[in-house]
Design brief:
Order of helices and strands: HHHH
Largest sheet: none
Number of domains: 1
Number of helices: 4
CATH topology: de novo design (two linked rop proteins)
CATH superfamily: 23S rRNA-intervening sequence
CATH architecture: Up-down Bundle
Helix content: over 70%
Radius of gyration: 14 Å
């Protein structure tokens, strides 16, 4: 696939929006979590669009599907971490719902992309 073709993918656009939203919400997490849950959640969320881009940069559909599968795994990790952060009070209800909606939308688009490969 074309190297910049990811910018046209709705799944990537939504995953990118989710990663950016996570980065915007996490500076208010406790400072002693900077290398803990803050880093873990950021890495999981950022891994979704990054793996889509890396897969598209590969030379075969099989590799693209493999990276899309990794992105789905990272999205599942993000789901749990969002729930965990809400449960321990690091995310309020409104912030959680905003991020969870983005995560769900990303999941639907990414799953459709994966199944189409």
């Amino acid at each position: 696939m074309e190297k910049k073709g990811y910018k046209n993918l709705e799944a990537w656009k939504k995953a990118d929006a989710l990663a950016k939203a996570v980065y915007k919400k996490t500076p208010d997490f406790p400072k002693d979590e900077i290398y803990g849950i803050t880093s873990q959640l950021r890495r999981a969320a950022l891994s979704v669009p990054v793996n889509i881009v890396e897969g598209i940069g590969r030379q075969s559909r099989k590799e693209l599907k493999q990276f899309a599968n990794i992105a789905l795994g990272s999205l599942a990790e993000t789901e749990y971490l969002l729930e965990f952060c809400k449960g321990i009070g690091y995310l309020g209800e409104e912030d959680f719902l905003e991020l969870e909606l983005l995560r769900q939308e990303t999941g639907k688009l990414l799953w459709g992309f994966y199944k189409g490969l």
